[in-house]
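Service request form, structural biology core

Requester: graduate student, group of Dr. S.
Request type: structure prediction, single chain
Budget code: on file
Notes: please return the result as structure tokens.

Sequence provided:
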Amino acid sequence: MKGQHPHQAHQVRRGNGLSPTDPSLLATPLEFLCEDHMRERQVCSVIDSLATSMSFDPSAARNVLRFVNEELNVHMQDDAADLFPLLARRCTAEDGIARAIARICTDLDEATRLLPGLRAALARCLDTGSGLATDDRQLLTQFAGHVRRHLAAENAILLPIARARLTRRDLQHLSSQMRTRRGLPPVAEAPDAD
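Core staff response, request fulfilled:
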């Protein structure tokens, strides 16, 4: 848009975090991951609202369940199966990438451990029409906290390093794997990618 700072134009193009990340961003996988992180932060806010609200919001609970059942696991696979190994191969010792990845994996593992309880609590409330128990509220808050810590570390540490270290071929591979994981057809790669 004419007269706008480039960063402002980028913000206009981005989604609101309320719906799944636009698959057209998969052409630039690091941008897709940034957008996915915004989506995850938005869902964490909904989870926090569910955990602290006096009345149970069935629509919000269904949205959270849809997200954790359809999107979260795919994003975690993007990280564990593709982004983290690519970074481990490309980074130097001074990048400290192994320690950063280990820290992120700890939060991802904790979120994964809490996920069945989160699903069960929300499903139980939807099935029975009851509100969340105190233990359920604590579990939701813990889950959102682990997801937020993972996002903060990935945004602040891993993605900037990925922008500096990953080659064009790495990014094409990452894009291809992410597309395949989402059931999308592959895009032909340029033969001169390095």
